[in-house]
Write a structure and sequence with these properties.
The chain has helices at residues 14-27, 37-46, 63-73, 88-96, 109-131, and strands at 6-10, 30-34, 51-55, 78-83, 101-104. By secondary structure, it is an alpha/beta fold. Strand 4, helix 4 (88-96) and strand 5 (101-104) form a beta-alpha-beta unit. The longest helix has 23 residues, at 109-131.
């Protein structure tokens, strides 16, 4: 089932993109990567993604601006915000802007796997609720 889930990893640091690609590919997810928000939007226009994992601080277009664009253009796509700035304001802002989950860098591989799984199931659950007829 995990091989049916497409994840876009967005980070300006190549090492972080490669690390997440390796961790999540090993878990069975289909992974694409982008260097910033602008590149991420280009990927999303050509290929639907189930989840986007995005860093906050990036050149050209950062994670919060990307989050707003995803919520506007691709509302069914889940978003996980990564931040090295784990202060409560950054996390609160991400959640208020519509992020499904967040993860603070540095993280352990099992932590990112749990966050991805939790975000995916939350999105799936919300989609199922939206599909049910209202009584």
């Amino acid at each position: 089932m995990k091989n049916d889930i497409a994840i876009l990893v967005v980070d300006d640091e190549e090492m972080m993109r490669d690390l997440l690609d390796k961790i999540l590919s090993r878990e069975g997810y289909r992974i694409k990567t982008a260097r910033d928000g602008i590149e991420a939007l280009e990927v999303l226009e050509s290929e639907p993604m189930d989840l986007v994992i995005s860093d906050v601080k990036m050149p050209r277009m950062g994670g919060f601006e990307l989050l707003k664009e995803i919520r506007s253009r691709h509302p069914q796509t889940g978003v996980i915000i990564m931040t090295a700035y784990g202060d409560s304001h950054t996390v609160k802002d991400a959640l208020l802007l519509g992020a499904d989950e967040y993860v603070t860098k540095p993280f352990k591989s099992h932590e990112i796997s749990l966050v991805v799984e939790r975000a995916y199931w939350r999105i799936l659950s919300n989609a199922n609720r939206m599909d049910r007829p209202h009584r």
